[in-house]
Design brief:
CATH topology of the largest domain: Rossmann fold
CATH architecture of the largest domain: 3-Layer(aba) Sandwich
Order of helices and strands: EHEHEHHEEEHEHHEEEEEEEEEE
Strand order of the largest sheet: 12-15-14-13-16-17
Distance between the termini: 37 Å
Number of helices: 7
Helix content: 10-25%
Strand content: 25-35%
Amino acid sequence: MNEPPLNSLELPKPPAETRVVVAMSGGVDSSVVAGLLKRQGYDVIGVTLQLYDHGEATHRAGACCAGQDIYDARRVAEDLGIPHYVLDYERRFQEAVIDAFADSYLAGETPIPCVGCNQKIKFADLLQTARDLGADALATGHYIASRRTPDGGRALYRARDAERDQSYFLFATTPEQLDFLRFPLGDLTKPQTRELARDYGLAVAEKSDSQDICFVPTGRYSQVIERLRPGAAEAGDIVHVDGRQLGRHDGIIHFTIGQRRGIGVAVGEPLYVVALDAERRRVVVGPREALETRSVVLRDLNWIGGAPLQAGRYDLFAKVRSTRPPQPARLTVGEGAVEVELLAGEYGVSPGQACVLYESDEAQSRVLGGGWIATAQPTQVHPAAAVRAPAVAAAR
């Protein structure tokens, strides 16, 4: 018996019989996804999540998932003639993303809340809502590709447009989620997406892109943290990697690894923040070469590279920040520990960031997974920069 042909979403149904929920943020990307699928004849439902309402942020250019963007998403849905629902996820977003963001900063880390939002909200709660609506798939406006594998599963690949690729923020996606998710923009460039928006007559065609951290109205993270955790930021010492005490600070939340300006001390040479020691409330500074890192220990590794990950060493490619291309790396998996050696070295690597793993450094290469950086081992060992390492978890 012949299997039914697959539609453009690689599902065995005619488009008209395939229900797709589109996560509509009010921006041009997700709006084009809704328009594209509607034109292809799918049964499309738009869903927008109200994640926060911080007053001025609801009307600020570059904000998302707040007042103006909800209005824009609703208007696009009306123009396309599709049902549209707004779901209040403010409390869930506060608990799962914003509170975790504040706690991570207080621990001396540099968190990436966009990953947490995808992992805990969009690809968990929203995905379940899509299933409850009888959908066959949940589609988003992320620039990343998802394709079928020979064994019938699905794999993630970097977007064709390397400058727009969002794989760094989606490494925590599980195989079960991948089976249900679709990313129609993975093979498009941003100019092509905007051209489609104009072709569809969407009012958001020229709308500017949203900023990464949507719930920080002023762009000053410390203000948000101080409001969420009053009195949690404690003063401490600013220490040079050679052991000298150089001054005092008002709280480590005002600093990030790699920071050059605004440190508050001067010694006649350029200084960078090398480490943040939350336990001893210390900000450790030093020359740029003290920032070089060649090894990171990961926690909560998510492996989507196909065959189950076994103990051993693997040559692959890794990136420790979203704006950098994948670099040669070696993954070592042991009992209860996962380490990545960055063969060419990286600068300004901080705990709390993501380390995402790839099959190669070529365009549209496969995403193998990734994890959160628990500790970053400096190339040059400085006793003053030593920070107690937290416990790490093995791969899942």
